[in-house]
Amino acid sequence: MSENPQQPQSPQPPDQPQQPEQAPAYGSPQPGQPPLQDQPAQPYPNQPAPGQPVQPQPGTGYGPPYGSGAPYQPQPLTPSDERTWSVIAQVGPFILGFIAPLIIWLLFKDRSRFVDQEAKESLNFQITIVLALIAAAIITAVTLGFGAFVYLAFIAAIVFMILAAVANGKGAPYRYPVNIRFIK
């Protein structure tokens, strides 16, 4: 009988030479192998079986292949990059306000604990400054302009931001003396 039960084969008499089997069509299983739909697709020969942890190849610098099921692990920042991004989080508000430390914190909070702490500190300080600006505007409006001297306090805020950038550039953390920590 044949291996395929759907096609009956006529038995050949023993005195006739047997004809060679035809090669299976492309995509069909080899004799003795399970059907192809039961085999897991492995586009790369060194890819682990599904559910197995991915072992990084030494020297490649790449993480697991896309679709391998392994969770994404962000690469940690180097100490030099940590200092750079924390300084940018401290001086970025001169140009972009609270947006600069917010973006840096969102991008790098999982890659560096130092940048996470310093960007949060800067973001909290910038939120505190915005609230102080609103209060100063109200005081100035209520006192018909005589409360404008309150804006002199913002010179101290600029000094604090520069001190924070210098400390972060050296790799040291900085805590603002007047800061409401909204984000912990």
Q: What is the helix/strand order? A: HHHHH
Outline the biggest β-sheet. none
Secondary structure: number of strands: 0
Fraction in helix? 40-55%
In DSSP terms (H or I, runs of 4 or more residues), the helix count works out at 5
Please mark out the parts with pLDDT under 50 across 5 or more consecutive residues, or reply none: none
Q: Mean pLDDT, as a whole number?
A: 78
What percent strand?
under 5%
Silhouette? elongated
How would you describe this protein?
- Helix 1 (79-91) runs antiparallel to helix 3, helix 1 (79-91) packs parallel to helix 4 (113-142) and helix 1 (79-91) packs antiparallel against helix 5 (153-169).
- This protein has a domain at 79-169.
- The N and C termini lie far apart (75 Å).
- The model has no long low-confidence stretch (mean pLDDT 78).
- The longest helix is centred in the last third of the chain and has 30 residues, at 113-142.
- The protein is elongated.
- With 184 residues, the chain is mainly α.
- Helices cover 40% and strands 0% of the residues.
- The protein contains 5 helices and no strands.
- The chain has helices at residues 79-91, 93-96, 99-108, 113-142, 153-169.
Secondary structure elements and pairings:
Elements: H1 79-91, H2 93-96, H3 99-108, H4 113-142, H5 153-169
Helix pairs in contact: 1-3, 1-4, 1-5, 3-4
Summarize the structure.
The protein is elongated, with a radius of gyration of 34 Å.
Keywords:
single chain; 184 residues; mainly alpha; 40% helix; 0% strand; elongated
